[in-house]
Amino acid sequence: MLPEDAVTEMPLPGSYQNSGQREAFENENLQEEWKKAAGGKEQKAKNRKDGKTGKKKRHPLRAILVILLVLALLFAGLFAAIYLFVGKTDYQPYEAIPEEASYNLPEKNLKGVKNILLIGTDARDPNVESRSDVIIVVSICPLQRKIYLTSILRDSYVDIPGIGQNRINHAFQMGGARLLAQTIEQNFGIRIDQYVKVDFYSFVDIIDSIGGVDIEVTDEEVHYVNAYLSEINQLMGVPAEDGFLSAGGAYTLNGRQALAFSRIRYIGTDFQRTARQRMVLEAAARKLKRSSPAAIMHAGKTALENITTDISDLSMTLLVLRSVFLLNYELVSARIPYDGLWWNALTPNGQEVLGIDFPSTSAQFRMMIYGAQ
After folding, report:
1. CATH 3.40.1190.10 for domain 83-370
2. Strand segments (E) across 14-102
3. Which of 106, 146, 340, 353 is such that its CA lies 20 to 30 A from the CA of 319?
4. pTM to 2 decimals?
5. Are 146 and 124 a contacting pair, CB within 8 Å?
6. What is the pLDDT of residues 142-174, one digit of tens each?
């Protein structure tokens, strides 16, 4: 048994009898830590020498391939979804016009240009043949990064193949989209690649799907908008005065109001009426540019379900995918007849029509779309 004073002389854990003992202990610990650190460095150096770093090597090529695979899967999913929507269009191809009747047209896809004939009919009943209330050639010109919207006035007096001289809007009623396309090709020297047709009800649904269009309506136009709107409301089973405008000003027009605005023909003749139609199309394009991808997809789905066209499912799918870029193209509004190349004329039975200088008009039309050939 130890004496009592020996207990007090034993160092407690973490304490030292003198400074020399304490310094020796700390030096011993420090040396041990240095050995451990040096040993770790030596081991890392050895690992590097042996090619074993402890970390997985990064493979940039593998990462790139993974990213490309993910993008490909996303694109494939988007393509499949659009292709499914496209299958809901009313696909009605017409018989191609024989080559011998091509009227010296520009070669197909010259400079990448695609001309799509947009036809708006005044049909109240889809089972009844009607005349074309809207005739617009939509020319997509990638080299110019422009899309031309060229209205052809319905009173243009043209030669309808197999029929003879008449207003151009009669061509659709007499022979559908094929005859109207053939009439434009023969009289204006522009190749029509495809067509898209909408009627009253389709137009309304498409405009409503994008949340309406922003249009400035004049005081004079308000009266006619309301008059046409009353008729449209009755056709669609809506109270006659629903959506009436109170005065001129800036409006976001819904589908029925936009249709009424587009149909006004008693202010400024047919020249101003076609200008209003293009205003609505341009306003719709501006609205889509500001829309979210989901809103654009919704609008596209609605449009595809409401059109009749000869554009195949594959071609339409590619066109829809391309539309993301087309929305950045400049929209240019035009109309035929051009200033200085038309005159007021009378048919043999005394009806007023528009006479046109076809050689000069054709040359100007082709120059606008294709440039120097």
Report:
1. no
2. 90-91
3. 106
4. 0.76
5. no
6. 999 999 999 999 999 999 999 999 999 999 989
